[in-house]
Amino acid sequence: MTVTARLDVQNSVPETVADFLRRLMERDVVDALLVPQRLPTGNNVVGSLVRDPNKLDGVDPIAPVMPVTSSKLAGSLTKVRAAGRVGVVMRSCELRGFVELVKLQQASADGVVTIGLDCLGTYEMTDYAQLIAEGVDPTAEAVAAASEGRVVPHEGYQLRAVCQMCEYPTPGFGDGYRPDVAIGLIGVDGGGLLVEARDDLAETLGLTPADPPPGRTAALEKLVAGRIAERDRRFAEFRAQVDGLDGLLSYFSTCIRCHNCMIACPICYCPECIFRTPTFDHTSEQYLNWADRKGAIRLPTDTLIFHLTRMNHMSTSCVGCGMCTSACPNDIPVATAFRAVAQKTQAIYDYLAGRSLEEDVPLATFREDELTALGERP
Amino acid sequence: MDDFEPRIIAFLCNWCTYTGADLAGTSRLQYPPNIRIIRLMCSGALDPVYVAKALLEGADGVLIGGCHPGDCHYQSGNYKVRRRVAILSEILDQMGLEKERVWLRWISASEGQYFADTVTEMVAAIKEMGPNPAKELWAT
Hints:
The complex is a heterodimer of chains A (378) and B (140). Chain A has 378 residues and is an alpha/beta fold.
């Protein structure tokens, strides 16, 4: 059961959040916190693992930038078993990625306190750095707009494409995973931050039950409806483009097989990806034979096979965090492609990546009474 | 139709389909020679990358053969490949590749005739579809 409460804003929203997180440490709920902090230069926000409550002054989990997904960091911190009680402060896609990693046995939820917050969208890192250089305070701007129920970028800038089509601005809204503590920023209408906490935690943290902000649900529904429309528009565009082989090739024409998308992806956890093994370290004879059969071959080889295989291997767990697109040196919209494919592959099993810790990952389970026509003579 | 002879790559599970194919041979059953067999210990050992590679490197069709559901030598390998093939099929379809070129068939060790029939059926169907356009792409 959860308790709904309000947190009055002291000075600034990031400071209020920092105070709240400090409470978690001081009241012995967690031994350490994984939380984004501003670097002294101010132009980047990086993950930090904090054990001293006095080192929380620079925290800004609301900052609209996500250089790496914290789901991966949480995975590193909790692989096999967390060595202490770790609190992880994450936005929705990171939480959902963490849920998938737990189910894939690359992270552990035991002893972990999940603290989710509303995500106010993210910029590409270079855009964020540029905004800072121009003297903008992206966090304050985002918080002010969100209070009124709007998630919009700074004039002349765009949020990352995946953010523009993200249906999960609030962890737990609709079909999302519900964290132990959730901090709400959208549609709070200036009345302080919303906190929804598991009731045992609420008591420890001294949260007084209060009514949720009246306009919040409507604001979220409106925001999500707009995001879904944008998502469907982008998916339709992608599907139209790859409707034939020429379209498929053109989508990945600037791919150089650097594997950055795979490296940045939280779900691609294999320390030995098949594409980095001798299997794809072809011999001279193989290259010459292939070139002989076709007359000419593109080098490096296996560009399409790389993406097709990655889709087959991880699309059922894709949470749409967009790290792949952000990591691509040639700006290929990898996330749009993978999300569009994932929508359909997850639907085969009525599965939504990151929705629940109890649902088995589609590739790791089966039912005897499903897909019964597949493999039978028609 | 010109004299297009499809080239079909088959991934067959050792305990059922491969043995069934062997039975077809020892029984001297006639079936088209267009098939190139690769033996896997279990259909569940099939990774979609094998199928993707085959389709982009010269195969006109891919046949995946395994034990009937419930009869897998390793209990559940065929259930897993069934899920994998459903996903692969969906992805091929979305990416403009013809999913009808990939067949999954449960063929047991005693079904030599069924194996021969399946190959005959598949060769005819692929001939009808024509050569796989993907195999000629040089910039894959």
